[in-house]
Amino acid sequence: MPAPANPTTSASSAAAQARAVQSRDTTPQDLTAAALTRIEAARDLNAVLSVNPHAAEQAAQVQARLNAGETLPLAGVPVIVKDNINVTGTATTSGSRILRGYVSPYDATAAARLVQAGAVIVAKANMDEFAMGSSTENSAYGPTLNPHDPARVPGGSSGGSAVAVAAGLSAVSLGSDTGGSVRQPAAFTGVYGLKPTYGRVSRYGLIAYASSLDQIGPFARTAEDLALIMNVIAGYDPHDATSLNAPPAFAAGTPDDLRGLRVGVITESLAGNTAGVNATLNATLDALRGAGATTAEVSLPELRYAIAAYYLIAMPEASSNLARFDGMVYGQRVQGSDVTEAMTLTREQGFGPEVQRRILIGTYALSSGYYDAYYSKAMKVRRLIADRFTQAFGQFDVLITPTSPFPAFRRGEKTSDPLAMYAADVDTVAINLAGLPALSVPAGFETVDGTPLPVGIQFIAPALHDERLVRVAGALEGIGIAQPQVAPGY
Q1: I need a surface site. Which of 72, 119, 137, 358 has the fewest CB within 10 A?
Q2: CA of 206: how far to CAs of 50, 83, 214, 242, in Å?
Q3: Minimal CA–CA distance to 16: which of 1, 29, 35?
Q4: How far is CA 179 from the centre of its chain?
Q5: Strands 451-460 and 438-448
Q6: Is 368 a catalytic site residue?
Q7: Is 295 helix (H, G, I), strand (E, B) or coil?
Q8: Within 13 Å, how many C-alpha atoms sit on residue 356's CB side?
Q9: Which residues are 218's β-sheet partners?
Q10: Catalytically annotated residue among 12, 176, 181, 269
Q11: CA 490, CA 321: separation in Å to the nearest integer?
Q12: Confidence at residue 422, expressed as pLDDT on a 0 to 100 scale
């Protein structure tokens, strides 16, 4: 999608903004001021929890570096990051009461690399508390609204980051994806959402939910912007023992990249979808074939166990990771008659109901007598799922599914039924279990109650072939399938 001439508008791309700054057609200060104005005007969406008090200072520093002759790939580009990513001097709450008032003393590696590349981190995005949710209704600071229909959810847990891009508050943003938390909100809001290979982007400075599943990933409205931001944030980090030494080489592709591409349609993803989701998937497959790709179905029967295995791994890891939030070192503390009572009251009042539910289930699954029955068995299923994906990639270059079996649902529709909420991730969790890269592409709309709602299609690649997904995104833009844009009215 060609970028508009004015780089300060809501629809401008990050690449266009950086080029305008580099050519002195605008300044980092102007871009930052414009982004802050848009954030303030869209307060009703509740996508942003806090504005970076040092944003103007960061913009001035970028200008000084440019004046000194530095070449900065993200020169002056405003970026919004999820509130579980530490940024020096900013409030970082992870959407929880228990971290109210906490100010980050350091940068996450991904945030530090953005700043080093010349970006200005302007704000922190709303999220489900500790990234636990699929709708951004679990935030202690209120739900985020979907700009396509404020009565509907934007997905989660990175709903604020998705809305930031979909409503034009920033051209790009960062979220985190543990079981679909970048891809599903990207699908619900009509933007790109990339979950990189596990370890491709450092997790240092990301507040952990489930350490073996978490991965920072970007939202964007163009394949060029996906490539731009991934070339900055990906790469080995000595602070993260799980990061991979795989230097990034991202670039948007062209329709020529689709010729001969072998696309596997996962059979298990074809049932249970709404009519609009099926129509969008079929239209995407038709377009791929028309551009020279080949398609065929492939069955991954182990995926029927993915939801159960995912939650029996994620919740135990969460119960371990969240043990550090006890009011003794940082965050809120509720006074008690002794240390034990203080910790108990702090956690009882600081954690929301969904976080408490997952901690309790996770602790139970790890308890004596149940570890082998639940957590250990889930880890074996995880291995089977990963092996099945490896077999499938022996036949196909990419695999394809809907990102979600339905478009954005109404606020409150699933909050009383946790199992229904968990099932919303049916098309995404297996990718995290296998550590693979996947991209949600905004490929169409389904009209519900008179409102066109975005539909996302998910492309999955072998481990460390993240670049292939970005090339596919650019190719789909070239044939008119992927057309992400700012939501109407923003």
Answers
A1: 72
A2: 17, 9, 9, 13
A3: 1
A4: 10
A5: antiparallel
A6: no
A7: strand
A8: 12
A9: 174
A10: 181
A11: 38
A12: 87
Average pLDDT of span 323-338:
88
- Report DSSP letters for 305-356, one per residue: GHHHHHHHHHHHHHHHHGGG-SSSSSS-----SSHHHHHHHHHHHHS-HHHH
Residue pointed to by tokens 């159960």: 308
d(CA 219, CA 225): 9
Instruction: Output phi, psi for 184, to 5 deg.
Output: -65, -45
Give the model's confidence band at 332: pLDDT under 50 very low, under 70 low, under 90 confident, else very high.
confident
Check 10, 13, 82, 139 and give the catalytic one: 82
Whole-number Å distance between alpha carbons of 340 and 390: 48
DSSP string for residues in 468-490: HHHHHHHHHHHTTS----PPTT-
The Cα–Cα gap between 381 and 426 comes to 15
Has 94 been annotated as catalytic? no
- Locate 475 and state its tokens: 């190719």
Sheet holding 172-176, edge to edge: 48-51, 120-125, 78-82, 172-176, 216-220, 192-195, 438-448, 451-460, 398-402, 262-266, 294-298
- Cβ neighbours, 10 Å, residue 416: 8
Phi then psi for residue 448, to 5 deg, are -125, 125
One DSSP character per residue, 21-66 reads HHTTSS-HHHHHHHHHHHHHHTGGG--EEEE-TTHHHHHHHHHHHH
Percent of the chain clearing pLDDT 90 (strictly above) = 89
pLDDT score at 2: 44
pLDDT tens-digit map of 150-178:
999 999 999 999 999 999 999 999 999 99
Rounded distance, CA 424 to CA 65, Å?
45
- How many whole angstroms separate alpha carbon 453 and alpha carbon 353? 29
What average pLDDT is seen over the chain?
Answer: 96
Q: Check 157, 202, 243, 440 and give the catalytic one.
A: 157
173 annotated active-site = no
